[in-house]
Design a protein that fits this description.
Bound molecules: coenzyme A
CATH topology of the largest domain: Peroxisomal Thiolase, Chain A, domain 1
Largest sheet: 5 strands, mixed
CATH architecture of the largest domain: 3-Layer(aba) Sandwich
Radius of gyration: 18 Å
Distance between the termini: 17 Å
Strand content: 15-25%
Number of strands: 13
Order of helices and strands: EEHHEHEHEHEHEEEEHEHHHEE
CATH superfamily of the largest domain: Thiolase/Chalcone synthase
CATH class of the largest domain: Alpha Beta
Number of helices: 10
Length: 325
């Protein structure tokens, strides 16, 4: 069955840039350490007037404009976030109201850094059933609000931002097998046994606080390379294409060394990997759509290209989606 196709994309970043040099005034770190171990040079940090929903709305408006559509054309909003405005209701409903979309479906997806992969796969499935016609799939985060700003092993790694795509239900007159646009294959996974390697130490039903991000970085790193290589192989095999056919990999932007190691395992040329971690740091669920929008707007990703999204995050959760533009 052909999959849904992307009609447009957009993104939004907070106005404040925090460079590695500025991070050295907060914790015992250095530009050299951060660049060498992660590839990160700067991150964007939300101000008091910027929230997950405000970034999501800006990204969604930009995606609608890019697609040439109006809010009234949208009947499904799936928003991936681990940093919602409120515990409830879903931030997606706030975004729906701010955009002026009436009726339809709106909900959040919590799969942390692979949230956008979970969200786009869920939206694609709903569109295929005919439950909705056009979806906004958004990844939006304000991770700065859950960082322990005294923990140098985590606070240097993350940033805030949002990315969005407009997805349309499959057009049955074209087929992705014949080179038409659309999602070709997706795979999602989870392994709750790895909870303690990457989690937030708070929540409504445990501590009644928001909590802070905790991570055993080196262990997460090893799992990330193994899980991402494995799910990429799975999607490639499932879709009947060869890794050589892929024009662009748009990975979750956690660490440049993870991107390089995964590419080496798959024998994919580094120039085919979209890298924005240097500019945005790890923006969790926002990172894939932010990187995708960056590469579309600068002209690298074009109509007809074969594009692979991939991500891994807390849970663990991980997944990949292959699509033709
Ligand atoms: N500045 C300077 N030194 C730092 C530092 C910082 N910001 N953070 C840690 N260090 C120190 C450590 O204390 C350690 O010192 P020690 O050897 O004296 O104990 C040393 O640097 C090495 O730390 P280590 O954690 O082994 O480094 P690493 O090479 O594994 O890099 C990460 C750390 C976090 C960058 C890396 O493990 C990583 O990216 N992991 C995956 C993270 C990820 O992808 N998370 C999100 C998944 S969605």
């Amino acid at each position: 069955m052909p999959g849904s196709r992307i009609l447009g994309s957009g993104s939004a970043l907070p106005s404040r840039v925090v460079t590695n040099a500025e991070m050295t005034t907060m914790v015992d770190t250095s530009d050299e350490w951060i660049v060498e171990r992660t590839g990160i040079r700067q991150r964007y940090i939300a101000g008091d007037d910027e929230t997950t929903s405000s970034l999501a709305v800006d990204a969604a408006r930009s995606a609608l404009k890019d697609a040439g559509l109006e809010p009234a054309d949208i009947d499904l909003i799936v928003l991936a976030t681990a940093t919602p405005d409120n515990t409830f209701p879903a931030t997606a409903t706030k975004v729906q109201h701010a955009l002026g979309c009436h009726g339809g479906i709106a909900f959040d997806v919590a799969a942390v850094c692979s949230g956008f992969l979970y969200a786009i796969t869920t939206a694609d499935s709903l569109l295929k059933t005919g439950m909705a016609r056009r979806a906004l799939v958004i990844g939006a985060e304000t991770f700065s609000r859950i960082l322990d700003w005294e923990d140098r092993t985590t606070c240097v790694l993350f940033g805030d931002g949002a990315g969005a795509v407009v997805l349309e239900a499959p057009d049955r007159s074209t087929s992705v097998e014949n080179g038409g646009p659309g999602i070709i294959a997706s795979r999602l996974h989870a392994d709750g046994a790895q909870h303690d390697l990457l989690y937030v130490d708070g929540g409504p039903s445990t501590t009644q606080t928001v909590g802070h991000l905790r991570m055993r970085g080196p262990e997460v790193f090893k799992h990330a390379v193994v899980n991402l290589s494995s799910v990429l192989h799975e999607v490639i095999e499932n879709s009947g294409i060869s890794a050589d056919d892929i024009d662009w990999i748009v990975p979750h932007q956690a660490n440049k060394r993870i991107l390089d190691a995964t590419a080496r395992k798959l024998k994919i040329a580094p120039e085919r990997i979209i890298v924005t971690v240097d500019q945005h740091a790890n923006t969790s669920a926002a990172s894939v759509p932010l990187a995708f929008d960056t590469a579309r707007k600068d002209g690298r990703i074009k109509s007809g290209d074969l594009v692979m999204f991939e991500a891994m995050g807390g849970g663990f959760t991980w997944g990949a989606t292959l699509l033709r533009m």
